[in-house]
UniProtKB/TrEMBL annotation:
InterPro entries: IS402-like_dom (IPR025161), Transposase_6_like (IPR052909)
UniProt cross-references to PANTHER family, sorted A to Z: BLL5188 PROTEIN (PTHR46637:SF1), TIS1421-TRANSPOSASE PROTEIN A (PTHR46637)
Domain Insertion element IS402-like: 21-92
Name of the protein in question: Putative transposase of IS4/5 family
Taxonomic path: Bacteria, Pseudomonadati, Pseudomonadota, Alphaproteobacteria, Acetobacterales
Species of provenance: Falsiroseomonas stagni DSM 19981
Superkingdom of this protein's organism: Bacteria
Length: 209
């Protein structure tokens, strides 16, 4: 999914207790998580499995604490991984954001979506980290915004490098210039290991202490 060009101020999503998807919420959510690979099998009872993902994400509890009424925890974990790898989680995040491409019908799911996105953060690529930073959705960020990638700065870095090395007759860059380039590159790439944020872990769901 292309990264939206707009950047929004940082904001926190208002926490909400977990509640199962309503018919209207599921109708808005289902098209965004539809399987795009026709060779794969559709997830069984996807609505219940999404409720399982949201239950674990909102409670911040372990998968083993998932109530039996939401099905096997392994099924929920596999679906979350599929959503992360297919780009569906990014579509959900964008739909619940303040971006013009957002869906008003998904806005009520914002807390559940940001918690699920953060739960799957280790499975997401750098482009997804850049997306959440651009959207300013602090509650979904797995680390402070300054730790996340800044791909929009890549053209600037490229221009600087070309200017420094544009001619073989030009003096070699100084150590301070090379050090600056290295620091700037690390800023664009983001930190390889992310710190935990101070965002509260979530609201306790029924049965979780």
């Amino acid at each position: 999914m292309p990264t939206p060009p707009l950047t929004f101020p940082l904001h926190r999503t208002t926490p909400r207790p977990f509640s199962p998807l309503t018919d209207a919420e599921w109708a808005a959510l289902a098209p965004l998580i539809a399987r795009t690979d026709p060779r794969g099998r559709p997830a069984q009872r996807t609505r219940r499995t999404m409720d399982a993902i949201f239950w674990v994400a909102c409670s911040a509890g372990p998968w083993r604490a998932l109530p039996a009424e939401y099905g096997p925890a392994n099924s929920a974990h596999r679906l979350l991984a599929r959503l992360a790898h297919s780009g569906a989680l990014d579509r959900l995040l964008l739909a619940a954001s303040r971006h013009p491409m957002a869906f008003a019908s998904v806005k009520s799911l914002e807390w559940r979506i940001v918690r699920a996105w953060r739960r799957a953060a280790r499975l997401l690529p750098a482009a997804s980290m850049a997306l959440v930073r651009r959207l300013g959705m602090v509650s979904a960020m797995p680390a402070p915004s300054w730790c996340l990638p800044y791909p929009e700065l890549e053209p600037l870095l490229l221009r600087v490098v070309r200017n420094l090395f544009r001619s073989p007759d030009r003096p070699r860059p100084s150590h301070s210039q090379l050090d600056w380039l290295s620091r700037f590159h690390r800023l664009i790439a983001g930190r390889p290991k992310l710190f935990r944020t101070t965002e509260p872990p979530g609201l306790a769901a029924p049965g979780v202490r």
